[in-house]
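Regression test attached.
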Amino acid sequence: MRIAVLGAGAWGTTIARVLAQNAASHDDMFYGTVDLYVEPIASDVNLAKTINSAHENPRYLPGIPLPDNVHASSDLLSVVSRAAILVFVCPHQFLGTLLDRIAAHVRRDAIAISLIKGLHAHDARMRTMSGMIRDALRIDCSALSGANVADQVAREQFSEATIGCRNVAHAAVFQAMFQRPYFRVQATTDIDGLEACGALKNIVALAAGFVDGLDLGTNTKAAVVRIGMEETMRLARVLFGDHVCDRTMLLSCGVADMITTCFSGRNRRVAEQFVRTGTPFDRLEAEMLHGQKLQGTLSAAEVHDVIVARGLTARFPLFAQTYRICFQGAPPRSIVDVLVQQPHEVVVAHHPDAA
Amino acid sequence: MRIAVLGAGAWGTTIARVLAQNAASHDDMFYGTVDLYVEPIASDVNLAKTINSAHENPRYLPGIPLPDNVHASSDLLSVVSRAAILVFVCPHQFLGTLLDRIAAHVRRDAIAISLIKGLHAHDARMRTMSGMIRDALRIDCSALSGANVADQVAREQFSEATIGCRNVAHAAVFQAMFQRPYFRVQATTDIDGLEACGALKNIVALAAGFVDGLDLGTNTKAAVVRIGMEETMRLARVLFGDHVCDRTMLLSCGVADMITTCFSGRNRRVAEQFVRTGTPFDRLEAEMLHGQKLQGTLSAAEVHDVIVARGLTARFPLFAQTYRICFQGAPPRSIVDVLVQQPHEVVVAHHPDAA
């Protein structure tokens, strides 16, 4: 099977490296070369050529040698038309356009996997990336997510990921594709829960950043992160149905990614500065992120629209208040005050002795 | 109902403060005064008197005013004999002796709750603190655990806790006793899972400290913490049975306490120094903890005995290797190397479309 990676940013390039190592060691299963689609950018139209000659992506993953069997190309349609497995790793706002461009050229028997973190908001609904791919291309699509800072995986520091996949045969293929001694992959069938975790964690990280900016203690930060996880799973069930499984939060795509994001991600960092300096988010983005956009504030606004449209703000006090603090001038301190309003449930484990 | 708090350390005193506030506001339910048993110590035989006159515990919780209706006493048997609700907050190594002293004096209709974090190792078994209390006193005993650094709760910074309770009527009593606007309490029936989380997190924190000492990245630390959670729930099921519920890990007693302990607790801190300096743990304890003992190393040794006796080390690579690093000279780096050996499970959520 021939693998094509669509997207040559830091994560796409890192994953092409992982896949090329596995293509070489599983030559019974995979075609020997992994194609890496490089979107031509005005400032460097020959990035694909550079990657193929230098065996390195100097723009997005400098200093990391790539195996010889990574083949970069900017010819999207020829890359797509020969691929048996499509790996989507583009920024999530570009997915729709990309799908339009390739839809007529995808093999009918191809399968896909999305490594994009995000949800697409539309009216009072939110769609998963894998769902968009599935609908646009009419092929099966899985998803991979986890606590995966790209350059650490590229340097082969141990990390884990989770594959969400509804088809057991495909899960086996994806495990063989992605698993390395330094990159451990588990599978779950709860693909919707997996993608919700990857998208909503950034809102929780903003709330965690507020707590840091207020110099509140570890009890409060742990509570905010935990309640954020609870709202994440609750919202995933509202959006996608009751098959979303709490157990997903205990996988790498859940708690591990949440921990990394809430302790060292950029959303947390900018939110802390927001509290300490009172500077609005758009100015902080410009000053701290060199033109990159914060995922968390965007997601907070999209989620807010959805829960307001459905009359559900009371069930999501952390998400709703994070939005009000970001965009409506609510005091950062209020992030803690609303937590007592969290819906209460007595959790009943199935205990034989329970009275 | 008259409440007695057995143990006047920082956490016992903090909890007496919470309970006294609630005894005053729920005077239909609770006796107006909360008894606080103070173990007389040679260096300060009159600590109880000092607490009652100064309304402060200058030894263990200096600077925090206590309500007037906290009544300290060193007369154990009179405190115990009039209590309808016994709250255990002593160091876990003293529980056995305490139970022997009070067993004949406890009211037959009393109920109890344990706030002690720890498990008691005995042969190839481990017992919960609430189980020991239940067996010794022949009364019902619940447990409370969470991400609760004492002085932050005493300063009324928002935090959460979980009550493990098999009796729904008792759960309502305990929720009324403990819940404050700054202290949010959820209940679960999975008391065994709750107590396992509180005891085993300290082993995970040692492993997290090794990762910090090795300057590995956030991916690896998040993976170690997550795998530690998985081994915690797996061991809880081995020790106590299949009724132990993964959902418990998503409560304050689980993930929140785990996060706090693995990012800012003393076990993490000492383990990091162990890697950086190569100093043995007993010397680090003496130098860094002023005579206090590390819970993590003790628990690692106890757990190691149990899993060796049961032939289960392969199912607990993180716990087993943490012990070998602490006590058998294994290199700290090996904590990462064993993680690829983690037992693999494809997690199957109940998805209607699953193929």
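Expected vs. actual: identical. Residues 191-213 of chain B form the longest helix (23 residues).
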